[in-house]
Design goal:
Layout lengths: L1 H18 L1 H24 L1 H14 L22 H11 L8 H15 L16 H32 L4 H30 L8 H22 L6 H22 L1 H17 L7 H22 L3 H20 L5 H18 L25 H6 L4 H20 L7 H18 L4 H19 L11 E2 L13 E2 L3 H22 L4 H26 L6 H24 L6 H23 L3 H16 L8 H19 L17 H19 L6 H27 L11 H24 L3 H25 L2 H4 L11 H20 L5 H28 L11 H24 L3 H25 L3 H27 L5 H8 L1
Antiparallel strand pairs: 1-2
Helix pairs in contact: 1-6, 2-5, 2-7, 3-5, 6-7, 6-8, 7-8, 8-9, 8-10, 9-10, 9-11, 10-11, 10-12, 11-12, 11-13, 12-15, 13-15, 13-16, 15-16, 15-17, 16-17, 16-18, 17-19, 18-19, 18-20, 19-21, 20-21, 21-22, 22-23, 22-24, 23-24, 23-25, 24-25, 25-26, 25-27, 26-27, 26-29, 27-30, 29-30, 30-31, ...
Pfam family, one: DUF2339
Organism: Shinella oryzae
Protein name: DUF2339 domain-containing protein
Length: 948
Amino acid sequence: MLEILTLVAFGLALYTLNASRTSAQKISEEVLRLRREVEALKAAGPVAAVEAGQADDVAAAPADAVDEPEQETFEGPWAGTTDELEKGRAIFGGAPAEEAPETVAASETAQDVATDPAATPVATPAKPRESFESRIGARWAVWVGGVALALGGIFMVKYSIEAGLLSPAVRLSLAAVFGLLLIAVGEFVRRRTQPLIANAFQNAMIPGVLTAAGALTLFAVTYVSYAVYGYFGPLTAFVLLAVVSFGTIGLSLLHGQALAGLGLLASMLTPALVSTENPSAWGLFGFLGIAWLATFATARIRRWQAVPALANAGMLMWTLLYLTQASYVDVIPVLLTMLLLALGHGLLWPGSVTAEDVPRPAATSTTPAVPSTALDRLFAPPLLAVSLTGALAMAFPALVLAGKVPAIAHGEYAFAAIVLALAVLGTLRGWAIYPALLSAIAAVGGVMKMTALPGGLIDPFTLIEPPTLDGAQPVSVLGLVPVNLLLVLAVAYAAVGLVAVRLQGRGERAFAAIWSILAPAVPFAILAVSFLTLGNLSFDLKHGLLAIVLGLVFFAAAEMFSRESEAQEGADVTQWAFVAGGFAFFVLALHALTDGLATTLGIAILGTIAVFATRLRRWPVLPWLMAAAAMLVAGRIAWEPTIVGAANLSKTPVFNQLLAGYGIPAALLALSAFELRRWPGERIRNLLQALASLFVLLTAGILVRHGMNGGVLDSAVPTLGEQATYTLLIIGASAVMMSLDLKSPSPVFRYGSMVAGVLSVLSVLSAHFIGLNPYFTGELLGKWPVLDLLLVGYLLPGLAYGGLALYARHRRPLPYVIMLALTAVALAFAWVTLSVRRYWHGEGIADWKGFLQPETYTYSVVWLLLGVMLLAIGSKFDSRSIRLASAGLVLISVVKVFLVDMSNLEGILRALSFIGLGAVLIGIGLFYQKILSRKSGTEDAAELNAEA
């Protein structure tokens, strides 16, 4: 029953098409007439266009407003009588006449010519939503009908098999005839109906559905004849399936992109459906390449985007399957196929397409057109899907080939060729931003994969026996990757990048800026990876000389592009990238040709030369190279603090390799900052001043550690004496930066001096009072009283903080000065207290020894005396903070006497403690009274009373 209904529906469709033949012919004639009228209007000029517009207004008026014949004609493809028009709509489910695309285009063209001789485009009004009736009758019915036809053919074949009416050969022959008949009927319907419905229902074309059903039928018949019944051999089946696939792709020129996708799918399935005992990579990739070319040629003619993107995806899938699953890989056909992809994208499709060649969605009343920025145009180029999938289809196989070295013969050469092909594609075409980026990623990633193989690629002349894949026949004996290949790849990529900047700089500046970064960065990464993994880290002439050559090339390119692009936008990016790239190659050459101290000093000297080069070229990038050099030197110091290695470091204090390795970069940084004193940019000058100060401190600190540890630098915890030296250095650095700021104001010196002071105070709190305090660590103080560890660790830093606080007074914020003064008091208090303990316990003052009664009494006496002394100093220098510290110290003494001495002391010591405390308190009161009464008649009395 279903088969009968299918045939009846098919017959009714043919009858309906024949019945509308007259209307279709009239519509075609009217379309041709409208085209001739539009061409005449364009040729006549604005005056004729205005007259034609007025005539069209009269012709478009309602029937009751003008005297017109009853058989009135309408503008557009639905031209004809009103009855014919309604009949055509009823049969084909067409849109109203005013919605027809040709009508809208003709009216807009006439209006544009009449108003503007340049015929500038205008916003297109929003297209009305399609009716539910049109969707059901004109679109869904087409697709359901196509499915019904295919099912009908399947059911007929099934019925004939079950009934035993026909032999397999006859059934397959009838099915093939049925498929050919469907294709023929599709062509017949296309020729009859295309002028009428081609534009209105492009995604529901009856001819295309019929042709697709016929192609599927032929494809299925061919495969069943080969795979099920064995009527064909593999070669014949492969050829027939290819003919069906290519024929479908060819017919897609007439029937649309959906049929092209079907043909592409069939062509991609053909190699998987037909298998042989001896598969050939040449046959596989030859067929895939031809299918890919046919698809792209078709897409180029019809300007399609979806089908070529799917073709790229299919090619990527087949290439990855072959490279990863084949027991033996022949790399030549793979390489030729990848080169074919590069040529096809560059010359065929998208080819030379630009953004102006691809129509953009027109603005409507609800979605106005938004102008795109340069960045949007760069990363959303025309035919984005095609270019991105094409780049991925080449980049992923390149990475797989790199990862399979040395298991795949000559895989490294194929990898290099594919990467360069991608780079060349990104150079020659303005839309190829993703081929350019993926070529860079594939180049660097592939080199890293090749050089990170187990066992390494240290000896390029060693031959190894690679492992077999899947237990199949072994590959021939291969050599490891030659270093020369990587060096050639770096040079070739640099050349491609320079050409790209030259070509793209005349058009899209953003693309040229991207290439100006890739051009030095990718070769540098390749050369660096090659040197670090395959080169001689002590001395490598090959890598060093090539790095020097590339550095000179990029400096010369920077000079050339700077002269040509002084007034062009984006020139700064190219200049910065090329100069920084040349500097990076010179640094790499230093690492290849020198070692140890020479490398460290060479980097600093390179940065200094760049600073002095500002006298010849006022390039903004040059001073920043010194900052980069300082960072590199700091990195080398962090990697190897001894500069030359622990075994080679001299044990002579001060005058050793550390003085040169740390001190010379510090001096060069200071010299560079001085050279830039008139440079317009303050940030780089301030940065170099800060780095110079840091390196000076670092130099002093490392020399102290070297001298105090017997010429050995290790990770041991520093002693109190060593830490005290660091504290004194930081205090001195703070004072030096304060002096520099007073002489030549600079935010680096101003804030740097305060940062150094705060850091030193934190260091004192953590190390001097807690971490390295001899009372907690048990460290011996030395045999000589006073001239011992306590003098270095507490008294000298206390005096230094006092002097710094006095120097910073009225020059730095008051809270900062108070912090320094209180730190000085705290260190003096610690020195006095620990000195008392040393007097009673000797050079070992560890806490486990406990306290003696005389010792406890002595603390009270000494603290009170210290409080009185601080009071005198505070009054002498009119320092409120010192006087407050004095009051705090006296308060501590009072608390100690009443809480500690009363409970722990006995006899005369307890009495003397209280007597002494009372005498001191009375003396302090008398002191204040005498000072206040002496100054009561002066202007300082109010201030003193306020401070007190």
